[in-house]
Specification:
The chain is mainly beta. The protein is built from one helix and 15 strands. Strands 1, 3, 4, 6, 11, 12, 13 and 15 form an eight-stranded antiparallel β-sheet that branches. Strands 2-5-14-7-8-9-10 form a seven-stranded antiparallel β-sheet, with no helix packed on it. A hairpin with a 2-residue loop joins strand 7 (97-105) and strand 8.
Length: 215
């Protein structure tokens, strides 16, 4: 009887999963008028190429460990779904590059970012919710906010992030299993845009952002 019940639950789960519908946003081509892209005295960007691949290049001119900047489309509203993109750290020194989602504004969002120079260690992937004017990473140094991953120091790698309710799964380079599973996500950050996150890095390269938002 228990086996039949488990089989029934499994079949229902498969059916529900198959019925899920997504709105797909292909953001691989950035239209600057439709995006918010950071540019000031200490931060600049260009549409160029890195290792032969066209990309958005974000450049931080002055080292600042409290910095976290976003590039994202203005009119995207994402709550749950799947986010995929490619990124690379192309500079020297610090390397903090990643993704922001459920973005309300420049200082309120969820982020998962990567440290290629810490490849293979617990510091390779970091999750945190940002809700302050300065990027306060030091409040999220506990092991539960971090995860191991093997990342190229200066090469491209692919990331898939699955967000469902209060749970996030992070997959690196098309792996079958997630490198990071985190829960609960911040309850106050329920929905918003999706975009690239650039931390204390001299150069980050970002491309091929595709968002599948659950309807």
């Amino acid at each position: 009887m228990k086996k039949l019940l488990l089989l029934f639950i499994l079949l229902v789960s498969i059916k529900v999963s198959a019925q899920q519908k997504y709105q797909v946003y292909d953001l691989s081509v950035i239209k600057p008028k439709e995006w918010i892209i950071p540019k000031n005295d200490t931060l600049d960007y260009e549409f160029g190429a890195y290792q032969g691949q066209k990309a958005l290049l974000i450049k931080r001119k002055i080292d600042n460990y409290k910095s976290g900047s976003l590039a994202y489309p203005k009119n995207l509203n994402f709550k749950d779904g799947i986010i995929e993109f490619d990124l690379a750290f192309g500079g020297k020194g610090n390397g903090y590059i990643g993704l922001a989602f459920r973005i309300k504004d420049a200082h309120h969002y969820e982020t998962v970012y990567f440290r290629p120079l810490s490849s293979g260690t617990i510091n390779a992937i970091q999750y945190m919710p940002e809700k302050k004017s300065e990027f306060n990473w030091w409040d999220y140094e506990a092991a539960k906010y971090q995860a191991k991953a093997v990342l190229p120091h200066n090469g491209w790698f692919h990331v898939k992030v699955v967000v469902m309710g209060s749970k996030m799964e992070v997959y690196v380079n098309h792996a079958a299993k997630p490198s990071m599973v985190y829960t609960p996500l911040d309850a106050s950050l329920k929905n918003g845009s999706v975009g690239y996150w650039h931390g204390n890095s001299s150069l980050g390269a970002y491309r091929n952002l595709v968002v599948k938002a659950l309807k």
